[in-house]
Amino acid sequence: MDVPRSEKVKRNKRIRRILYLIVAFAAIGVVTVALSKLQPAPPSVDSGTVVSGEVKRGQMIRNVHGLGALVPEEIRWIQAGVNGRIEKRNVKPGDTVREDTVLIVMSNPELERDALDAQTQLVAAEAELANQQVLLRSQYLNQKAQAATVRADYTRAKIMSETDYALFKEGVGSERTHRLSKSTADELAERAQIEQERLEIGADSIKAQIAVYEARVRQFKALYDLRSKQLDALKVRAGLSGVVQDVAVQVGQQVTIGSNLARVADPSKLKAEIRIAETQTKDIAFGQRVEIDMRNLGIVEGHVMRIAPAPTQGTLAIDVALDGELPKGARPDMSVDGTIELERLKDTLYVQRPASGQEQSVITLFKYVEGGNEAVRVQVKLGRSSVTDIEILEGLNVGDRVILSDTSQFDSVNRIRLN
Fold first, then answer.
1. CA angle centred on 93, ends 87 and 99, rounded to 5°
2. Are 90 and 104 in contact, with CB atoms under 8 Å apart?
3. What is the count of structural domains for the chain?
4. Nearest 5 degrees, angle CA 284-CA 342-CA 367?
5. pLDDT in tens, 129-178
6. How remote is the C-alpha of 139 from its chain's centroid?
7. Is residue 229 part of a domain?
8. Alpha-carbon distances of 248 from 84, 235, 277, rounded to whole Å
9. Which CATH number does the domain housing residue 258 bear?
10. How far apart are CA 174 and CA 164, in angstroms?
11. pTM assigned to the model
């Protein structure tokens, strides 16, 4: 038989239920608040997939790197000295030539005719000069003979005058005879003086006339020499001992003065031409030390000898003179790597260059903590840089280890765990 419950019991039971509900809701609220304050678990990264580096202090060598090739120091384009038609090609690319090696034979009938005409004119001018020399010499000799005759007549007249004067003094001869002989002697003396002056003037006149004909000979000689050189230019010579790199014309082709016919280079004198990114060239200067890596042939030292005045397609060409002896097997157009040493920084805090690190910038890196099991994000101020290292101005200390590889996938977190 059931005993009916009193109202008091029912009320107490309801009160207990309400209290239980209040406690349950309070516990849920506390747990919710506690959970909201918990940080999410850091993402995990396999330590074998990241590249790390240690911050060091000491000497840091600043350098820049570029790719390039070996090129001859002296490359000469052989140009056409005259108009002509290509008749024969005596060489092919790769052939070794000397300075006087005939590379190409050309023809030009008009030039050959002009050379023959110039030779004919020169021969005629030389013959005319020789003829005038003979004629003028003959005239001079005739004049000289006439002057000698007058001098002889004067000598005889003078002797006769002196004789007549002596006879006149002794009273044997007449005064009239003495005066006539003296007058004749005086006349011949004056004529002898005139002939002597004419003889002297004649020598100068001969020189002047001969000079005119000699000038004509020189004129035609110069013209003939010019035509001869032009004719000789139909045989195109290398002008440089080396290797033929290119022959730019074909047999039968018509070329004009100044046309490029062939290219010859001296393979014994090589330099390195490397190209550096335009953004890395502001500190490059003449004379800086350069290491040229010739791949499997070794490394040769050199120095900066020329800097291009302007960049091309984002890179600047740098010519490097090779100071060391070239290894056997080095040849033009061989690919090389070049590293230019800009400066040496002493007592500098530096680290290997991170994937996203640019000089004179502020970046964030993950620094190892907790014995290397975790890494936290830190802000780092960078300074000057080189190919492999970069200067640390703020944010890291000697001995700190940081992740150098790309961590852009973790930009939303400040801590990562390394497994």
1. 75
2. yes
3. 3
4. 125
5. 898 888 888 887 877 888 788 888 778 878 887 787 777 787 777 777 77
6. 65
7. no
8. 15, 16, 33
9. 2.40.50.100
10. 8
11. 0.57
